[in-house]
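input
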Amino acid sequence: MSLGLNYIVSEISDIGGRSNQQDYFGKVRTQHGSLFVVADGMGGRNGGSIASEIAVKIVLNEFVSQKSVDILDSIRHSLHLANRIILQRGQEDENLIGMGTTIAILFLNDIFAKTFHIGDSRVYQFRDEDIVFCTTDHSKVSELVMNGIINPEKLEFTMNLIF
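output
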C-alpha cells in the first residue's frame, strides 16, 4: 500500500503536578500505514511510567510483527496483550501493585484513519482552525456529562472543583 500521505508529527510532554514523568510516546511506519501511540500512567500511582512504556512498546512491536490481514484486529489484540502483561507485572512486584496506564492510538493510511483509546488520553482532529474531539474519555466526569448530571458548559468550573 502506498503511503503518499504527508503529515507533520510533533510531541510534547508536561509532567504536570507529578513528581515523575509517566508519559510515553512511540510511532512507527510500515507498508500497512502509520501507528502513533501515547500512554500516560494513571493518577500518579506507582509504576505508571513502567505501565505506559510497556503498553506503547507492546503495541508498536505487535504492529510491526503482525501477520494478520486485519490490521485493526491486530491492534486490538496488542492492547489485550499489553493489558495482560501490565497486570502480570503488577502482581509479580509488590511495588507495582495497581499500576496502570491510559492509551491513545491513531492508525493512519492512505484510505482511512482509526483511533483506539482507553482512559482519558484523547485523540483530536484538527480541521482548519477547529478542533474536533475524536474520542470520549473513559472517566467518571465524562460519564456524568453523558448522563446529563454535569452541564458541559460548566465542566471547566466543575473540573477546577474536582482537582
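quick obs: Residues 71-92 form the longest helix (22 residues).
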